[in-house]
Design a protein that fits this description.
- The protein contains 19 helices and no strands.
- By secondary structure, it is mainly alpha-helical.
- Among the domains are: 81 residues, Serine Threonine Protein Phosphatase 5, Tetratricopeptide repeat; 73 residues, no CATH class.
- Helix 3 runs parallel beside helix 5.
- The protein is globular.
- 42% of the residues are buried.
Length: 376
């Protein structure tokens, strides 16, 4: 008779697998996932352990979707299929399993740009945080909820959670990349609050620290830092520096090949149009458009259509549909920025009534940003 493995042994292996997921170490995570699946076949019956395994498969796929080209893992269950599987036993979950279930569901909603819903799940998960003894997991929680609050312009709440995350991550030398991530997100908050000098300082520090690490995954992060620095320079009206940084971001293969690469392509097209380099801008616009379609990035498809109307050929229907999507997803900061540009566009064309209409939309979006706090 074959020897049956104790479920506790498999549980230890799943925890090791999760550590690799948190560190975005795809090769190690893939190896451990395969080992866990093999051991489960030889394991004693334990329904809670199987739920834990299902939750980790879900988290693993969220990692892959955020980093890898979509077609590479097409033969595997999608996150939607995995979500359906883990939702079934959720009512009876308690403690750590309940925490993971709520936390990972929040991440799923975040990836679908449902930021208020993500925060709702994160806050429910926070009630179970006392079941989490691992300080790095506590840090991960604060980092993720900080990102969600940042997305809805709740900057001071975001910064508060980032402070907690950074203090915890700094205790473990294996999480230097996460400390860099905290600095980057602080920089992003500063950027949104128009504290551009501070934002630039945080990005400069993050870049210096990233270059000091000899790790493959840091290359992707360096690409993101260049992208974010480009945003700072663009807001500061330094178009030359903005263009240089977006180009550097695009040149980082490990960044441009991820689902986030379309953002840099979009911004490059945007800044080139502002520099009156229409021919070059069209190239990056078309490249971004193709990437957005391939990866089903509806947010950037919407933004690209608006940019095309501003600088190439105005299409009232596409503008209306695109703004409708941004409004539906409650992406109020982007909505406000783009409606302001559309207002300026119409004023320059002496379409004063239309210009006033878009500026009213801008004011409405800015009001919604203030109201978001009430929704959470």
């Amino acid at each position: 008779m074959d020897q049956v493995l104790p479920s506790s042994q498999v549980g230890v292996k799943i925890n090791e697998w999760y550590k690799m997921i948190r560190q975005f170490s795809v090769p190690d995570a893939e190896i451990l996932k395969a080992e866990v699946e093999q051991e489960i076949e030889e394991m004693e019956e334990d329904q809670d352990l199987l739920v834990f395994y299902s939750l980790m498969c879900f988290r693993h796929q969220l990692m892959l979707d955020s980093l890898e080209p979509e077609d590479r893992y097409r033969d595997r269950p999608t996150v939607d299929e995995l979500l359906e599987k883990i939702e079934k036993p959720q009512k009876r979950l308690t403690g750590l399993l309940k925490y993971y279930s709520l936390f990972f569901r929040g991440m799923y909603e975040f990836d679908h740009k449902e930021y208020v819903d993500a925060i709702s799940y994160y806050r429910k998960a926070e009630r179970e945080l006392n079941a989490v003894s691992d300080e790095m997991e506590q840090a991960e929680f604060h980092y993720k909820i900080a990102d969600a609050y940042y997305q809805i312009d709740q900057h001071f709440v975001s910064l508060n959670h980032l402070k907690k995350a950074k203090q915890l991550f700094e205790k473990n030398q294996l999480y230097k990349v996460k400390v860099i991530g905290c600095n980057m997100m602080v920089g992003a908050n500063m950027y949104d609050m128009y504290r551009l000098t501070e934002a630039e300082s945080y990005y400069r520090e993050a870049l210096s620290n990233a270059r000091g690490l000899d790790e493959e995954k840091v290359k992707r992060i360096i690409g993101v830092i260049f992208h974010n620095s480009g945003l700072v320079y663009l807001r500061g009206k330094n178009l030359i520096a903005a263009e240089e940084n977006f180009k550097k971001a695009i040149d980082v293969k490990e960044h441009i090949d991820t689902v986030y690469g379309v953002r840099s392509l979009y911004m490059m097209a945007n800044v080139l149009y502002q520099c009156d380099k229409a021919k070059e801008a069209r190239f990056f616009y078309e490249t971004a458009l193709n990437r957005a379609r391939t990866s089903n990035e509806e947010e950037y498809l919407a933004k690209l259509k608006i940019i095309n109307s501003l600088y190439e050929e105005y299409n009232e229907t596409e503008v209306k549909q695109s703004l409708g999507y941004l409004e539906e997803k409650r992406l109020w900061s982007d909505f406000a920025e783009l409606t302001e540009k559309l207002g300026d566009f119409h004023f320059e064309k002496r379409n004063y009534a239309e210009g006033r209409n878009f500026l009213k939309k801008t004011i409405h979006a800015q009001t919604q940003i203030l109201k978001v706090t009430e929704a959470i």
